[in-house]
Amino acid sequence: MHEVLFQYLEVKSEQKLTGDEQKLIKAKFQPKRLRKRQYFLQEGDVCKYLAFIVKGSSRMFSVDNNGHEHIVRFGLESWWLSDPESCNTLAPTRYNIEMLEDSELLVISVADAYELLNKCRIFDLAFKAMDKKASIATQKRIHTTISMTAEERYDELANTYPQFLQRFPQSMIASYLGLSPETLSRIRKNSMSK
User: Fold this and answer.
1) What is the pLDDT of residues 15-60, one digit of tens each?
2) Nearest residue to 124 via CA among 11, 9, 24
3) pLDDT at 132
4) Which residues of 156-190 are buried (b: 16+ CB within 10 A; e: fewer)?
């Protein structure tokens, strides 16, 4: 199970892990299985752990005062689960992270992750690369949300993350795009008839 994480870290850091680094990382990351619909994190809790998805998928969402869910992020294999705001400020999270499929995770405490950042250069380099990519993706998502039409947002998602359309229900895709399910259905129908 840890081999997938080792490969991820080597690709992101563009470096090769030593045997000692692999042992150190393996000692800090604990395997965890969560079933479909189980929560990794619930609103009101402080996020004290990060998880690397080895197998499965997830969604990070909030629920407004009217009971409507708003999906802010999906997770797939080789992606990370956490709420960075809660991890860094120790404030209770406003989000839920729910598994959408039976999943296999590698979990590390925030404290152990900080220790690894200081002790393992490859882990530090990989996290810097991941943070850079996440920052760019967030900026693109904000731009898409505030400046594109519903049709353009759907096309952007289909081009950037086609696997989302294959793995997640249409109602969740609509929530992620900030659309009603009916609007998304109309957009998909028009897209197919082109």
Assistant:
1) 999 999 999 999 999 999 999 999 999 999 999 999 999 999 999 9
2) 9
3) 93
4) bbeeebeebeeebeeebbbbbbebeeeebeebbee
Count of other CB atoms within 10 angstroms of residue 140: 12
Cβ atoms of residues 36 and 153 within 8 Å: no
- Rounded Cα distance between 120 and 107, Å, is 17
In terms of phi and psi (left: phi > 0; alpha: psi -120 to 50; beta: otherwise), the region of 44 is: left
Report the residue count for the chain: 194
Q: 109 near 49, Cβ under 8 Å?
A: yes
Catalogue the E-assigned strands of 46-188.
49-55, 58-63, 69-75, 80-81, 96-99, 103-109
The SS3 call for residue 109 is strand
Tokens of 94: 């406003």
